Amino acid sequence: MTFFRLDASILPATSASRALGDRVxxxxxxxxxxxxxxxxxxxxxxxxxEVWRAAVTGGFTPExxxxxxxxxxxxxxxxxADELISADALLFDVPLYNYGPSQHFKTWxxxxxxxxxxxxxxxxxxxxxxxxxxxxxGNYAPGTPKEGWxxxxxxxxxxxxxxxxxxxxxxxxPFTLVGVNPALDDFADLAASLKxxxxxDATRSGRELAELRAQRSA
Length: 218
Known about the structure:
The chain is of the alpha/beta class. The protein is 44% helix and 16% strand. It has helices at residues 16-31, 49-59, 68-86, 103-112, 153-163, 188-217, and strands at 2-7, 36-41, 89-93, 96-97, 100-101, 129-135, 167-173. Strand 4 and strand 5 (100-101) form a beta hairpin. Helix 2 runs parallel beside helix 4 (103-112). The longest helix is centred in the C-terminal third of the chain and has 30 residues, at 188-217. The two termini are 14 Å apart.
């Protein structure tokens, strides 16, 4: 049994997304202690955008005519897809940066997406249980002054849930910059409440992933 975890935070020592991801993983390993956890830290080991270009162009090039760069890129795409396909459950820890998705995650997705097994015609990931952890420095929820400024979470949901067909649950924690940015000091109580709620959601999500896998094995 295999659990796949992807982290995208560039600040691992203080990462709110990783802390929530730890809760999900703990619930999984508590239920499946003999499982293997496959990790990919795309912030520590980012994938170059040039790899995506080579993977795409390699897909339109006969195999015996591909350049070394194209062959390497296609091989990496296959590896990334293998990690997803072989896992029994998936976890994605992806903070919002500058109002959009992490560039590391976008490139990782773009490269993996060139593998035909998980492109729009593929069904290898259909129904696989997954959790998305997303954390936001401010708060862009309905009714807030910057409502709609989160251009990451909707995109992540679209590609993970609608494109790949994952059975997705989302854990979101806003206001992670409260206590860091003085302009947000007035929201300390709300931020604490939202943090507690996110922690509960992460624990529940991890438990659901473990239970779903156990049910499918029964």
